[in-house]
Design a protein that fits this description.
The protein is α+β, with helices and mostly antiparallel strands. The chain is built from two helices and four strands. Helix content is about 25%, strand content about 25%. Bound molecules: iron/sulfur cluster. The site of iron/sulfur cluster (SF4) has 15 residues, from helix 1.
Length: about 60
């Protein structure tokens, strides 16, 4: 799977970093980015997707 964050939809709320800091990290604008080489199979990825208030996190098969 490929996980990505639509930057224009991210409000930098920080929920995904709190829930799944192994995969998501803030960029210099405070918005979420996927850590290079992170494990997108971690269960917390789905938790972060459900927790994101704007639906900015997406998965592609
Ligand atoms: S939970 Fe969503 S809106 Fe909040 S920082 Fe993460 S991607 Fe951005």
């Amino acid at each position: 799977m490929d996980i990505y964050v639509i930057q224009k939809d991210c409000t930098a709320c920080g929920a995904c970093f709190s829930i799944c800091g192994e995969v998501f990290e803030p960029n210099d604008q405070g918005k979420s980015e996927v850590r290079p080489g992170s494990d997108d199979e971690l269960p917390c990825v789905m938790e972060a997707i459900f927790a994101c208030p704007t639906g900015a996190i997406h998965l592609d098969d």
